[in-house]
Input
Amino acid sequence: MDRTVRERIVDVLAPENAECVVEIGPGRGAITDLLAVRARRLVAIELDRDLAALLRDRYSHQPSVSIVEGDVLETNLAALAGGPFVLVGNVPYYITTPILFHALKHPRPQRAVFLVQREVASRMVALPGSGDYGALSVNLQALASVRIVMKVPAGAFAPPPKVDSAVVLVEPRAVPLVEADEEERLRNLVLSVFALRRKQMRRVLRTVAGLDVEGAERVLELEGIPHEARPEELPPERFVRLMRALSQR
Output
């Protein structure tokens, strides 16, 4: 309900500098209204049939605005855009992580601005050694740079949720840390490793890679990782190297 927040989201997205804007979950059009007057072309994906119909009627006189009724997780965003695009969304909090990684599939958006739960935003930008650093931090930062633009209190919404939120800018790396065919492998490894985040890496590798003590120590030594290190101490680059070392074995 806070127009200042809506305008900040649109300003960070800079829709006039993009060929196409794709919006996830326009709802009743709070952000869509601002995008519609600034974007060269706008495609909004709405799951709710009634809301999609409402939006189609509202923008029927604007040929540059298209409303697509569907599930974003089953939608090829790049194909929908038909070329380079930027992405924006006030995403449903219960499926934020799946949407984030779906949004970063190839071809990726030039940039994306999301309104997410503040706790999730903290994990997205967390650095190694911090309490919020985990699997989401590693897997996302391997593909993109992430920055919290602003924090949004619960009172900015109607009705107010039980949590605070944050606006996050995600900009895909020009050169990702992983190749396209490695992304799923890295994701699976990182999830397995952080399931044992309190364990030392020697024990972690024995469990997730099925190595004996000698094999685990050899891999860690080759990658310059102390045997006693714990998962939350390793930066994304280390996880990528570890994934490749294990793949070679």
In short: The chain is about 40% helix and 15% strand.
